């Protein structure tokens, strides 16, 4: 590449087929090695994970340590202060939850800040796009909506939702959505969140050296904090984004690197907050900027998303998506990216170095995230176009001076995205009788065995996308309807499973429902904060009736098969605390055969919550989830209907019809 920093000899080749099933990423990894460019895949190969850290068997919470305990003999010794393996693990796990919850709640708070300024007419670039959703959310929270102006309702909603973050005592507003019996269980265990700031602060305090040294007590606060994320910070982020930018409805859109266009100025936005993206959409459609791009010789400006804000605008507006977390460096290797704008979360520092090799610039935009070597163009909500227009202009300049060979993998996958829980309601129930009744009925009659949320990241410690895809295929084959968010949704979209035609891969019962409704067996709901849509869907299923009285009664399960971030741990813990069996892949940061492990994997369920599960194998994961779903079906007394369906299937197979 003519760049001394990237000496071809310095990049040790990896077996590309072992690290990804994404063909576009594989093609770019091959090119990266040829160009002498290193990626996270290469670094993961050369840097083995620390086994003690991977098991959370070490503590560096004070300067008497760091203390390392043994995973092989966890009770063989204690830390200098006397902390046991259970205390050390529970503290480390809790801090992951605190950090993950902080990320989501800070994102949600930014959305709420934006909402306040829009409502107060201090920002002109954004408006309330979905007043119906505003009214619906406000009414749910007990705010009077009849005969009131949008502005008055919005002001009241702002003040109500602010409690999610700053409230000192009481319960956060969205607990009004929690099924009564689930809420009763939370109250019994003292885990109803007060306000996110308080819960995160208390958890950080309790995990300080010499404070909470009982793993059970720590786990309680861990659940409370995680619930402040799921039913608080994340839910507010989702709802405010819908109110400001529109509630998603199904839309056809393309994913994968083939969405790049050599003849256009390619701009990628990668991160998590939708406002940067919304303004970028305005910028790339500005006739003046389009003219500037054309004057530079381009056919136009091509905007693409990556990671979660990409998944959000894919769902909301059908903006093409270039790839998930483990493709963010690979996409730069195409040489076709003229500018990459990032905001917060999951932005690898390594992007800057890869970008540099191909003459691409990475622009940070958020005051919370600066990266050494990246140019910072501040995104100010009151004048957002100053930032997004500048990024487009920088992209146009780069287009004009492209001097590196371009290679774009010719792979593009169409799919249907944008299944908000409101739309699932409408889709299954129809416009006049929108409800979850048909979903519940199909679960009760056994056509749909249960519902699984498959979400989360990709991780270079496992073969990119493979665990997601194999797990989901196995689930739908067994009549489990799959809902998805984040990077997992993109993995399945690339595998072609987000199309109604993919129903052919589903079991007979699920396929029949998909064909009747015209929906894919895999429903993409958006970004990681949009996991809150899954919580709401679970809640609606309970309230609709026939499937028990709490979320823990539902035949549902969750999985993050290739997780990597602390946000994923927070998400996992809020699903578990909400009553869902949640299985993680890759690795689980806890030593087996310890009391803390037993609590997470068995004890919490006995308290009326959900429980954790772990396996790195997708087939085993599917088996565990299906067994759990069947266990719940049995408890609900609906296992017989399912048996009948299975018999019908067997009978059909016997007749050579299936
Ligand atoms: Fe070691 Fe205890 Fe200090 Fe942790 S808090 S580093 S276990 S002495
Ligand atoms: S972006 S948290 S890698 S889903 Fe939300 Fe993807 Fe995981 Fe980041």
Automatic annotation (TrEMBL):
<dbReference type="GO" id="GO:0006091">
    <property type="term" value="P:generation of precursor metabolites and energy"/>
</dbReference>
<keyword id="KW-0004">4Fe-4S</keyword>
<dbReference type="GO" id="GO:0016151">
    <property type="term" value="F:nickel cation binding"/>
</dbReference>
<feature type="binding site">
    <location>
        <position position="487"/>
    </location>
    <ligand>
        <name>[Ni-4Fe-4S] cluster</name>
    </ligand>
</feature>
<keyword id="KW-0479">Metal-binding</keyword>
<dbReference type="GO" id="GO:0050418">
    <property type="term" value="F:hydroxylamine reductase activity"/>
</dbReference>
<feature type="binding site">
    <location>
        <position position="58"/>
    </location>
    <ligand>
        <name>[4Fe-4S] cluster 1</name>
    </ligand>
</feature>
<feature type="binding site">
    <location>
        <position position="81"/>
    </location>
    <ligand>
        <name>[4Fe-4S] cluster 2</name>
    </ligand>
</feature>
<dbReference type="InterPro" id="IPR016099">
    <property type="entry name" value="Prismane-like_a/b-sand"/>
</dbReference>
<dbReference type="InterPro" id="IPR004137">
    <property type="entry name" value="HCP/CODH"/>
</dbReference>
<dbReference type="InterPro" id="IPR010047">
    <property type="entry name" value="CODH"/>
</dbReference>
<dbReference type="GO" id="GO:0051539">
    <property type="term" value="F:4 iron, 4 sulfur cluster binding"/>
</dbReference>
<dbReference type="GO" id="GO:0042542">
    <property type="term" value="P:response to hydrogen peroxide"/>
</dbReference>
<protein>
    <recommendedName>
        <fullName>Carbon monoxide dehydrogenase</fullName>
        <ecNumber>1.2.7.4</ecNumber>
    </recommendedName>
</protein>
<dbReference type="Pfam" id="PF03063">
    <property type="entry name" value="Prismane"/>
</dbReference>
<feature type="binding site">
    <location>
        <position position="67"/>
    </location>
    <ligand>
        <name>[4Fe-4S] cluster 2</name>
    </ligand>
</feature>
<dbReference type="GO" id="GO:0043885">
    <property type="term" value="F:anaerobic carbon-monoxide dehydrogenase activity"/>
</dbReference>
<feature type="binding site">
    <location>
        <position position="308"/>
    </location>
    <ligand>
        <name>[Ni-4Fe-4S] cluster</name>
    </ligand>
</feature>
<feature type="binding site">
    <location>
        <position position="62"/>
    </location>
    <ligand>
        <name>[4Fe-4S] cluster 2</name>
    </ligand>
</feature>
<feature type="binding site">
    <location>
        <position position="272"/>
    </location>
    <ligand>
        <name>[Ni-4Fe-4S] cluster</name>
    </ligand>
</feature>
<feature type="binding site">
    <location>
        <position position="50"/>
    </location>
    <ligand>
        <name>[4Fe-4S] cluster 1</name>
    </ligand>
</feature>
<dbReference type="InterPro" id="IPR016101">
    <property type="entry name" value="CO_DH_a-bundle"/>
</dbReference>
<dbReference type="GO" id="GO:0004601">
    <property type="term" value="F:peroxidase activity"/>
</dbReference>
<keyword id="KW-0411">Iron-sulfur</keyword>
<dbReference type="InterPro" id="IPR011254">
    <property type="entry name" value="Prismane-like_sf"/>
</dbReference>
<feature type="binding site">
    <location>
        <position position="457"/>
    </location>
    <ligand>
        <name>[Ni-4Fe-4S] cluster</name>
    </ligand>
</feature>
<keyword id="KW-0560">Oxidoreductase</keyword>
<feature type="binding site">
    <location>
        <position position="346"/>
    </location>
    <ligand>
        <name>[Ni-4Fe-4S] cluster</name>
    </ligand>
</feature>
<keyword id="KW-0533">Nickel</keyword>
<keyword id="KW-0408">Iron</keyword>
<feature type="binding site">
    <location>
        <position position="528"/>
    </location>
    <ligand>
        <name>[Ni-4Fe-4S] cluster</name>
    </ligand>
</feature>
<feature type="binding site">
    <location>
        <position position="59"/>
    </location>
    <ligand>
        <name>[4Fe-4S] cluster 2</name>
    </ligand>
</feature>
């Amino acid at each position: 590449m003519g760049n001394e920093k990237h000496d071809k000899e310095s990049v040790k080749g990896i077996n590309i087929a072992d690290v990804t099933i994404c063909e576009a990423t594989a093609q770019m990894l091959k090119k990266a090695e040829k160009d002498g460019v290193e990626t996270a895949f290469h670094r993961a190969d050369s840097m083995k994970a620390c086994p003690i850290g991977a098991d959370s068997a070490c503590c560096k919470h004070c300067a008497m340590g760091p203390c390392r305990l043994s995973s092989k003999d966890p009770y063989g010794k204690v830390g200098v202060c006397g902390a046991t393996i259970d205390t050390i693990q529970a503290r480390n796990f809790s801090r992951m939850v605190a950090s993950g919850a902080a990320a989501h709640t800070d994102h949600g708070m930014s959305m709420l800040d934006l909402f306040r300024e829009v409502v107060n007419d201090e920002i002109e670039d954004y408006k309330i796009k979905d007043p119906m959703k505003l009214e619906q959310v406000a009414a749910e929270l007990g705010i009077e909506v009849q005969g009131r102006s949008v502005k008055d309702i919005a002001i009241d909603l702002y003040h109500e939702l602010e409690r999610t973050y700053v409230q000192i005592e009481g319960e956060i507003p969205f607990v009004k959505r929690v099924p009564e019996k689930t809420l009763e269980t939370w109250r019994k265990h003292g885990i109803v969140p007060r306000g996110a700031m308080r819960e995160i602060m208390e958890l950080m305090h309790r995990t300080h050296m010499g404070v909470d040294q009982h793993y059970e007590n720590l786990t309680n606060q861990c659940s409370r904090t995680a619930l402040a994320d799921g039913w608080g910070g994340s839910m507010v982020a989702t709802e405010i984004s819908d109110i400001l930018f529109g509630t998603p409805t199904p839309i056809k859109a393309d994913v994968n690197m083939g969405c790049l266009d050599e003849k256009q100025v390619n701009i990628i936005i990668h991160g998590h907050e939708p406002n940067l993206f919304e303004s970028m959409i305005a910028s790339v459609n500005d006739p003046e900027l389009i003219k500037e791009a054309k004057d530079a010789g381009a056919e136009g400006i091509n905007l693409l998303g990556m990671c979660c804000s990409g998944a959000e605008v894919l769902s909301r507006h059908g903006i093409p998506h270039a790839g998930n977390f483990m493709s963010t460096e690979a996409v730069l290797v195409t040489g076709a990216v003229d500018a990459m704008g990032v905001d917060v979360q999951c932005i690898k520092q390594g992007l800057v170095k890869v970008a540099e090799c191909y003459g691409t610039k990475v622009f940070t935009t958020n005051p919370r995230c600066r990266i050494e070597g990246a140019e910072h163009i501040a995104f100010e909500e009151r004048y957002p176009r100053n930032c997004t227009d500048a990024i487009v202009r920088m992209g146009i300049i780069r287009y004009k001076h492209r001097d590196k060979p371009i290679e774009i993998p010719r792979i593009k996958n169409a799919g249907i995205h944008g299944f908000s829980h409101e739309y699932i309601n409408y889709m299954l129930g129809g416009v006049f009788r929108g409800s979850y009744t048909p979903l519940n009925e199909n679960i009760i009659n056994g056509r749909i065995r249960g519902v699984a949320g498959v979400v989360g990241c990709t991780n270079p410690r496992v073969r990119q996308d493979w665990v997601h895809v194999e797990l989901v295929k196995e689930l739908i084959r067994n009549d489990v309807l799959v809902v998805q968010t984040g990077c997992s949704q993109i993995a399945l979209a690339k595998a072609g499973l987000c199309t109604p035609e993919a129903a052919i891969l589903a079991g007979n019962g699920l396929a029949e429902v998909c064909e009747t409704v015209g929906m894919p067996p895999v429903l993409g709901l958006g970004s990681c904060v949009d996991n809150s849509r899954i919580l709401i869907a679970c809640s609606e299923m309970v309230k609709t009736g026939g499937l028990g009285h709490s979320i823990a009664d539902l035949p549902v399960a969750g999985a993050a098969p290739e997780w990597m971030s602390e946000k994923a741990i927070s998400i996992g813990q809020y699903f578990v605390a909400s009553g869902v069996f949640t299985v993680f892949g890759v690795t689980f940061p806890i030593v087996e055969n310890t009391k803390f492990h037993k609590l997470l994997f068995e004890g919490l369920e006995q308290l009326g919550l959900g429980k954790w599960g772990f396996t790195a194998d997708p087939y085993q994961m599917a088996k565990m989830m299906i067994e759990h779903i069947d266990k719940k079906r049995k408890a609900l007394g609906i296992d017989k209907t399912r048996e009948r369906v299975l018999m019908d299937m067997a009978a059909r197979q016997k007749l050579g019809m299936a």
